């Protein structure tokens, strides 16, 4: 899978990324498999009865929120690790000590079950954020009753974004509805950002986007950059690293360019994994 130039993070995403550079512990599946053997379940073992989540002391919640720009009290939850609290903002999941002094960014694995607990929570948070986003703030290709839907953060000047869009008819024919949002990788007040504004302000956004993806100039009235800014910030909150950034309805981040057939396969695998995790 191909990725393009990493995006420029903003606000909360940038704050967490800086801290994460010092404190990240995120082994991949092969590393984890090499360091831990999956235990054999005891015969006739029964799953433990669910317990009610522990309450978070008000002073702990307040300290954590005060240390993380943009965080809200509702973003803080008890984590699987005693002494650490989970903070979910958009698609970002981090763990903070009760005194608000230490932040850990990375994946938490349950070594007994070999389950990536952070990935599950991250996908859930992304799915919730994407479901809450209004389609009035998107450019949509495909019928409303399509079998599958993806949200794609795109950059008009991104080569792989253009390649993906050149196959949009095949993507739609494969049963996938595409909801585009803008993510100019160069950030505000740049040529790519201005092109995104011009497309958004066009009378026919779908037609204007297709022309812009072909390299044609799109000129017309200006309507401000509020919509582009909102889309860009959502992409940053969801952890977009490059474009095209493709997200499934279950919150999986597919990543860069894929062919229509690869996209369908990735969506189906995402759906199966979500069902299995329930």
Rg estimate, integer Å:
21 Å
The appropriate CATH architecture of the largest domain is: 3-Layer(aba) Sandwich
Query: Would you tell me which CATH topology of the largest domain applies?
Result: Glutaredoxin
- The H-and-E topology, N to C, reads as HHHEEEEEEHEEHHEHHHEEH
Helix segment tally: 10
Mean pLDDT, all residues = 83
What's the total number of strands?
11
Number of domains: 2
Low-confidence stretches: 1-43, 47-52
**What is the assigned CATH homologous superfamily of the largest domain?**
Glutaredoxin
- Given helix and strand content, the structural type is alpha+beta
Molecular shape:
globular
CATH class of the largest domain: Alpha Beta
State the strand order across the main sheet.
7-9-8-10-11
The fraction of residues assigned to DSSP E strands is 15-25%
What proportion of the residues is helical, as a percent range? 25-40%
End-to-end C-alpha gap? 28 Å
Task: Give an overview in words.
The chain is of the alpha+beta class. It folds into two domains: 11-39 and 52-118, Nuclear Transport Factor 2, Chain: A (Roll); 132-276, 3-Layer(aba) Sandwich (Glutaredoxin). It has ten helices and eleven strands. It has helices at 11-23, 29-35, 58-67, 117-132, 159-166, 168-173, 191-201, 205-213, 226-237, 260-276; strands spanning 76-78, 84-89, 92-97, 103-104, 109-110, 115-116, 139-141, 148-154, 176-182, 245-248, 253-255. The protein has a five-stranded mixed sheet with strand order 7-9-8-10-11, with helices on both faces. A hairpin with a 5-residue loop joins strand 1 and strand 2. Helix 7 (191-201) packs antiparallel against helix 8. The radius of gyration is 21 Å and the shape is globular. The two termini are 28 Å apart. Mean pLDDT is 83; it is low at 1-43 and 47-52.
